[in-house]
């Protein structure tokens, strides 16, 4: 699903990852993190895709850098991030961006 974001400016966190083999509780944890993120002040939406090769890209949208930092330091998110490092990801990279302009098309 394409996130319904407000008029720019706002922020995007781009999380690119390469999964390890097997689920090992990943799907349940990912669903919980999405549910928890949606409850955070300043959360605007998310878009996510993962290929059969294990490469995934998740873009979450936020109203401010302060909202991003609050999410980063949320205790449940911190614990899951550590499990990601030890169990679910072979590699990952996070990028934080300010969206200056956004436009789209739909039928």
From TrEMBL:
Record domain ABM: where: 10-96
PANTHER family: ABM DOMAIN-CONTAINING PROTEIN (PTHR37811:SF2), BLL5343 PROTEIN (PTHR37811)
Protein name (Swiss-Prot/TrEMBL): ABM domain-containing protein
Organism encoding this protein: Pseudomonas laurylsulfatiphila
